[in-house]
Amino acid sequence: xxxxxxxxxxxxxxxxxxxxxxxxxxxxxxxxxxxxxxxxxxxxxxxxxxxxxxxxxxxxxxxxxxxxxxxxxxxxxxxxxxxxxxxxxxxxxxxxxxxxxxxxxxxxxxxxxxxxxxxxxxxxxxxxxxxxxxxxxxxxxxxxxxxxxxxxxxxxxxxxxxxxxxxxxxxxxxxxxxxxxxxxxxxxxxxxxxxxxxxxxxxxxxxxxxxxxxxxxxxxxxxxxxxxxxxxxxxxxxxxxxxxxxxxxxxxxxxxxxxxxxxxxxxxxxxxxxxxxxxxx
Length: 281
Description:
Elements: E1 6-9, E2 20-23, E3 31-33, E4 47-53, H1 61-74, E5 75-86, H2 88-104, H3 108-126, H4 132-138, H5 146-216, H6 228-237, E6 241-246, H7 256-259, E7 263-264, E8 267-268, E9 273-279
Parallel strand pairs: 1-2, 1-4, 2-3, 4-5
Antiparallel strand pairs: 5-9, 6-9, 7-8
């Protein structure tokens, strides 16, 4: 199958075999491992289309202009750039709606929805471990507002929750074995707790700080948030024109629906995201 002159940056697990797909780490023969922090390794005017989803928000604000300027450089004249990222406007609007609802007429569901939107707003900027509180929320035994969460984060959230529920069923079969070992574990802990406490006291402050620092510089954290105004203004400052907000199903990219990069099995990957396109003239 011939490659299209279409580039998918920071593709993760969302890629198409006809595209040139690049990411920091490759888990597929269809994905090329590239350190995007060092630029986009292609000549000027190489691609008809560039797409990146859930990438720009992970780049420090002061480096966003340089990254998008690189996109502009390797895009052909009249080429299309499509950017997908969390929509600050959508999150804030939903937060204000749920705040009013819970002040005026709270319920179990409205409070759960409020808790979730607060996680959307803050969790991925403040978390210190993979998945943060959003993943913990999805892994609860009971999620009262499950449908609302799926409406907000779509295919990805549903996949995480379904995987957790499958693993939970498997985990139940291991509980009896764990219970049988508890007595031996208690004996061991009583014998070693003093030594362990001394060990932790010496190394934990340093190792925990390093772990957190390594994690927060590892690419999962959101470094900035955008809305349709700020993203459009940034794109225009990099030379792009004709910025326009799209839906997950809508694009000026020919045969967009075939590639299933924003929609999979009729379910949107990131339904509450901002979808914006621009052109290089």
